[in-house]
Amino acid sequence: MVEGVIRQIRELIPRGKRLKIMNVCGSHEHTISSSGIRSLMPEGLELIPGPGCPVCVCPESDIINAIELSRRDDVLLVTYGDMLRVPSREGSIISNGRNFRMVTSPSEVVRIAREDKDRKVIFFSIGFETTTAPVAAILETGMPENLYILSSHRLTPRIMEVLVMDSEIGIDGFIAPGHVSAIVGADAWRVFPERYGIPVVVAGFEPENLLLGLLELLRQINDGRPYVGNVYRHVVRPQGNTTAQRLINKYFTVSDVNWRAIGNIPRSGLELRDEYARADAKRVFGLKEVKESKIPGCICDRVVLGKAYPDDCRLFKKACTPERPKGPCMVSIEGACNIWFKNR
Fold first, then answer.
1. N or C: which end of the chain has fewer CB within 10 A?
2. Of 246, 155, 230, 219, which Cα lies nearest the Cα of 190?
3. Domain assignment of residue 103, given as a range
4. Residue 51 and residue 180: Cα distance in Å, rounded?
5. Is residue 89 located within the same domain as residue 138?
6. Model-level pTM?
7. How far apart are CA 197 and CA 187, in angstroms?
8. pLDDT on residue 261
9. Contact assessment for residue 173 and residue 200, using Cβ atoms and an 8 Å cutoff
10. Cα(270)–Cα(133) distance, rounded to whole angstroms?
């Protein structure tokens, strides 16, 4: 089957034409790189990794604030493992923080807060819609009084719109992220074919499923009839997970937020609603935005936006490695630089 799909993909690329397909999800990029899909594609088809790494786009300001909070004697900062190692001009949480702990899920955060009642437990919570839903769930079930949320959540459809409007990239089609689509639904991507004339296909994470998604995208492009396709129907429904959506909307509000090295993007993030200010670490601890700094030589911003590949960076595999990352794209297992380092 795979050989037949690849043959059809090659036949659908007109001679002399170049097409750019962006895979938005870091897990998709991992599959594409580790399975060698790029090497099987025809010359005119370019597969571009996109901004599907929440660690990579978390603003430096949030990291610096997290480090400062962890230095307080009355605070325990908890966050996911990758976030502990993300560099900033103040270092990383693991190198310059003090009171911190790694967690793997929001439910673990609740347990820690209940066991450590003498300290203020701050959950540095990052991610796209997929990880926002579990945070909303712990708010719904009742959080301990000593637990606070430092929210750094971002919205996937909004950053994709920003990419579409950037003429330097020139995207011809999107492979929509499977995990996010399970929450927001396939219909969340209709804005792209309907407003921008760009086809979208929701795909899963097996190489065969990704190839089927690519084939459907190319058929749409050739037919000149863009729509939202879905080759991941056993997981993603058109309307998505409406319970998760309801909880997210109940506890979070859409806001203008910064993306690391990209800048402020209107209506692209989620902050806790005013009704839940008691749990909002930014308000409770009076946290302020700090100015972003540029890492000399690092082009992570261009990699995240699909304007460059990891090996275009002069630091890649030299000064910048997973053991000694200079930029955030080399830290996370969903970061394009980390993926390319391990698979190319």
1. N
2. 230
3. 1-293
4. 13
5. yes
6. 0.94
7. 15
8. 80
9. yes
10. 11
Would you state the pLDDT for residue 84? 97
- Rounded CA gap, 273 and 250, in Å? 8
Which pLDDT score is estimated for 262? 87
Q: How far apart are CA 61 and CA 265, in angstroms?
A: 15
Same domain, 43 and 128: yes
* 196 and 320 together in one domain: no
Identify the helix (H) or strand (E) that includes residue 84. Answer: none
pLDDT at residue 167, rounded to an integer: 86
Tokens of 327: 């930029």
Instruction: Return the residue matching tokens 């297992």.
Output: 333
DSSP string, 10-55: HHTS-TT--EEEEE--HHHHHHHHHHTHHHHS-TTEEEEE-S--HH
CATH number of the CATH domain containing 124:
3.40.50.11750
Token pair 């690092």 in the structure block, residue: 298
Provide the 8-state DSSP code for 320.
B
Tokens of 195: 């407003």
Strand 75-80 relative to strand 45-49, pairing: unpaired
Q: Check residue 67 and give its pLDDT.
A: 98
Residue type, 307: K
The pLDDT value recorded for residue 333 is: 92
Rounded-to-integer distance, Cα 214 and Cα 186, Å = 16
311 and 287 in a common domain:
no
Cross-strand partners of 255: 269
User: What integer pLDDT is reported at residue 1 of this predicted model?
Assistant: 75
Q: Mark the ranges of the chain whose per-residue pLDDT is less than 70.
A: none
Give the H/E segment covering residue 56: helix 54-57
* pLDDT for 227: 98
